[in-house]
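INFO  loader      accepted 1 record
INFO  loader      residues=122
INFO  predictor   begin
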Amino acid sequence: MTVRFVNPLPFAADITVARDFYRDVVGLDVVEDAGEFVRFATGFALHDGASLLRRATGAAPDGTAFGRANLVLYFEADDLDEAYRRVAARAVILHPVQRQDWGGRVFRFLDPDGHIVEMGEA
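INFO  predictor   done
INFO  writer      dumping tokens
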């Protein structure tokens, strides 16, 4: 038996808002949009939180936010400064482009559900 990791499925409170954010702000291409599930060309995917919670647990959502400060979604951009300008105009920026201890440059921001997103140099 072989097991391979495919991708995380962050829960989205509003799948349309989340899809549009990752498409229009982050710059990812949508390759599948099944309404409650959206997959992007990079393999990254989103799922409508309420519907996935009902499917996985049989429970109705309790109204709590899905995004938590215990997970970072990491992306790379071939032009980090341009990516920062595009994202900074439309997202909550946690910090601007900074060189990290390991030498790479990154910036971090929040998606519409409060997930931490890190964008680094390719």
